[in-house]
Amino acid sequence: MKILIIGGVAGGASAAARARRLSEDAEIIMFERGPFVSFANCGLPYHIGGDIQSRDKLLLQTPESFLARFNVDVRVMNEVVAIDRGNKSISVKNLVDGSDYIESYDYLLLSPGAAPVVPPITGINNSLTYSLRNIPDMDRIIKSIETNKPQHATVVGGGFIGLEMMEAFHQLGIQTTLLEMADQVMTPVDKEMAGFVHSEIKAKGVDLRLGVALKAVEQLDDKTLSLSLSDDEKIDTGLLIMAIGVRPETQLAAAAGIELGELGGITVNEHMQTNDPYIYAVGDAIEDNDFVTGKPGLVPLAGPANRQGRMAADNIFGRNESYQSTQGTAICKVFDLAVASVGKNEKQLKKESIEYQKVYVHTASHASYYPGAETVSLKLIYSPTTGKILGAQAVGKDGVDKRIDVLAVAQRAGMTVEQLQHLELTYAPPYGSAKDVINQAAFVANNIINGDATPIHFDEIDQITDNQILLDVRNPAELDNVGFIEGAINIPVDQLRQRMNEIPKDKEIIIYCQVGLRGNVAYRQLVNNGYKARNLIGGYRTYIHAKC
Asked: What SUPFAM superfamilies is this protein classified in (predicted)?
């Protein structure tokens, strides 16, 4: 059997290694148009910023090591320019000597990845503007920094690469502006959760500009660009990074008649097979099914790509493995914070007209009395009818990855929020709490499902009517230290029983505290005494960060 693989990074390299483990007899050739294979592209910004000091650490395998360990013929600087499905062959151009040749196959695997989106902005093609996809891109950015020693850099795009490059420049002592056309960074999470990230970015001295797009670029000299923005402002910068997103690399597949989906990615079945039974495709170039909706999606993440590569190799050898959808589990470091998510966010659920309920908790990463505890802010989204987990988001300095990973497993297992109450997670004061963040979120969700709590959310607070009263149950000192919502009356929760006669019974009481816990205590007191009330889920902390 002869297997050809186009693309030598996550999906392609995984498929090549798996194929060899399944057969010593197969002829396996992997083509990569760049000079490197199996490199850690997720680590590129961290080498630029200095966290990963050795460039060699990014090179997980070389053509020589791949040959030695897996007996795979790795051909770097060889670009596949055409696929002849009828003759089961490909046309290849050697980018070193310019020669062309034909290679036949029994099975072909496509793993071309996704390319950075660079919009047609006037002046964008200049010597100081870069995108970041591979090691040569990284090398060019490092060389520009070393040669020009820019005092200011601009990053366009607030996704993973944009945020990581922003932090890299900050670590290098370069003043940085981050432009994001949307009203938030990190679109996998919802705006109120992104607010925590906005606060962190601003606290580090980065010039964050939301709702602002880049309109035009003018190169003033060999070290300076003038950027024209959508708000009619102009800024001068010494280095421009375009990181507004990626799109699947599908030109080769489309030219060969491989079917593409509505989103522009290669269409595959559950076995990673295209409409040609002898051609498989994996990774960022394909449309894979979403775990929650079952609809096709584009999820450019390394984890799915690696698993898909392995499964495609299995199926080439007749294993009949099925890929079981993509949850989109992801995490990003933003200075001292981690921001992570799994499943669908609220924006996506609204777009799909999927009914949902949400809860927020803000609680300690481990026992609060043990030194070093940090607040984990967790948003849990679930179906109000089935209790199934639709998605989750978390932000904090510690323990964020643990909680999202647990919820990713729970979602894939089909667990409900009722079952989340019973999760038995590790507890010792340095590591967790007797009631973990996840347990607490489940308790809040089940209170709502069982009618023990009536929620109100941050985006409803500013629309309260004359028939409602806003009640702040925090201590007066907290109002002075962290702020308050205008128009609220303040009765601390510990005084509420004695002062309940100050609250009229003919109006609905909208209760809030700092994170929602004391608000729930107050809510139960009031409804048990005949009042109509609702509690602000997530409290003032959620409300105020939604405005950041």
From this structure: FAD/NAD(P)-binding domain, FAD/NAD-linked reductases, dimerisation (C-terminal) domain, Rhodanese/Cell cycle control phosphatase
From 42, 332, 513, 548, active-site residue: 42
Q: DSSP string of 420-488?
A: HTT------TTT--SS-HHHHHHHHHHHHHTTS--EE-HHHHTT--TTEEEEE-S-HHHHHHH---TT-
42 labelled catalytic: yes
Residue labelled with tokens 């300095």: 397
- Tokens standing for residue 547: 């405005």
Using a cut of 0.90, tell me whether the model's pTM lies above it: yes
Domains and CATH numbers, the chain: 2-113+247-317 (3.50.50.60), 129-244 (3.50.50.60), 336-450 (3.50.50.60), 456-546 (3.40.250.10)
Residue 99: φ, ψ to 5°: -80, 160
CA distance 248 to 117: 10
Q: Which of 252, 248, 280, 279 is nearest to 264 (CA)?
A: 248
User: Concatenated DSSP letters for 329-359?
Assistant: -EEEEETTEEEEEEE--HHHHHHTT---EEE
